[in-house]
Amino acid sequence: MSRREVCNGDDPDVQRGAEILSRALEAERAALASLCQILKEL
């Protein structure tokens, strides 16, 4: 696999990894938003 393929996400494993990371970041953002809301209410 060339560097270009990795950078462009042509590899299915890279695409799948990107999807997993994206979902994890969304979940982390939601958790932090919830935590911030709880802290504001204290």
From TrEMBL:
Stated name of the protein: Uncharacterized protein
